[in-house]
Amino acid sequence: MYLVRNLRSWHGRVSSNDVLLGLIIANFAVFLLWKIADPVFMVKNFTLSLYIITSGRLHTLITSAFSHLVVEDILLNMFLLSVFGKDVGRTFGPEFLLKLYLAGAIGGSVFYLVQYVLLASKVP
Fold it and tell me: Could you tell me one molecular function GO term of this UniProt entry (predicted)?
C-alpha cells in the first residue's frame, strides 16, 4: 500500500517535459550503450527479430524502439520527439505521452514482425 501511495504522489509531480526529457535521455543512453557495451548483449536485448521474440525476449518489443545506431538517426528522431512530444504532452498530459510512446514501440514492433512473417511466407 505504501508503494502505491508513493507512486500516485510521484505521478502527480511529473510534468510532460519530465517525461519527454526522460525519453530523450533513455534513447541517448541506449545509443551510447551500442558504442561501449558487449555487442552480443545489445543484439539480444535491443534488437527485434522473430528468433529473438521466439527465444522469449519479449522486452525487445519495447527496447528496440530505443535503439539508434547512426548519429543522424538519433538526432533527427529526438528532434522530432521533442517537437511533437511537447504538443502531445501539453495537450494530453505526461501519462498519455509515455503511454503513446510505449504503444508506438510495441505497435511498430508487432507490425514489423507481422510484415516479416508475411514476406517470408511468400518466398518460394
Answer: serine-type endopeptidase activity
pLDDT digits (tens, 9 = 90+) for 27-83: 999 999 999 999 999 999 999 999 999 999 999 999 999 999 999 999 999 999 999
In a domain, 50, yes or no: yes
Domain that holds residue 26: 16-122
CA distance 92 to 94: 7
In a domain, residue 1? The reply is no
Task: Report in angstroms the alpha-carbon separations of 114 from 3, 37, 98, 110.
Answer: 38, 30, 24, 6
Domain count, the chain: 1
Does 102 fall in a domain? Answer: yes
Burial class (CB in 10 A: 0-12, 13-18, 19+), 106: middle
